[in-house]
């Protein structure tokens, strides 16, 4: 009895998770990787013009945000395969009620995770999430409402936040650095090449963008090309399109 009850719960949970993007158009397995084709036609299975998708992260120390042993989420940004990007692509979908949308979609575990790992430096998470969605999320052409076969209100918003969190969970910057002996320290400094090597290794051999503020490491961007749509498609790590903004030596990694 107990066994069948928990099986039913497991089945229900699985259905809910799959249901999240079940109505997004299915892309064939031979979809071309974005930024790697001469095609200039945006379709529901080809990210264009924003063909590079960047999972961006922060290491905030002034003030500190998030767990002391984890980087935090900045967002998922489409880039035009060349370091330039579109922004704020659809004001009619620039929602400011992200928490309500996720709650109405039953994505409360996602929301709880975001409250810990996708936090605003000024403590205004709701505005930060709305900003990321409105500025960047609305520019991802493969998740426009017209790409869904039985679209429900704001479905693409929940799909976007869930995808960003999934990507972030696979890009544990803190642990990758720590495994390379690069740990937060109030006096020690590191070189750009040793930090780059540790994160390139995490990112399937592709270089990353590193950002610094006053000589202290505070940002990393992981670049991907995608075959298919931004939710169900295949993500391939690619080299950074943007030159790192850190000095080559003497980089601080300040404890939170
Ligand atoms: C996609 O195609 C490749 C090569 O033909 C195959 O190995 C892979 O299993 C396919 N993936 C899916 C999800 O069908
Ligand atoms: C979120 O805001 C939009 C736009 O104002 C509205 O249409 C939608 O019903 C709201 N969603 C929830 C769950 O409150």
From TrEMBL:
Pfam families: Ribonuclease_T2
Keywords: Disulfide bond, Endonuclease, Glycoprotein, Hydrolase, Lyase, Nuclease, Signal
Signal sequence residues: 1-22
Record carries keyword Phosphoprotein: no
One GO location term (cellular component): extracellular region
Coiled coil: none
Residue stretches spanning the membrane: none
Active site: 74, 132, 136
Gene Ontology molecular functions: hydrolase activity; ribonuclease T2 activity; RNA binding
Enzyme Commission no: 4.6.1.19
UniProt cross-references to PROSITE patterns, sorted A to Z: RNASE_T2_1, RNASE_T2_2
GO process terms (BP): RNA catabolic process
Family the entry assigns: Belongs to the RNase T2 family.
Name by which UniProt lists this protein: ribonuclease T2
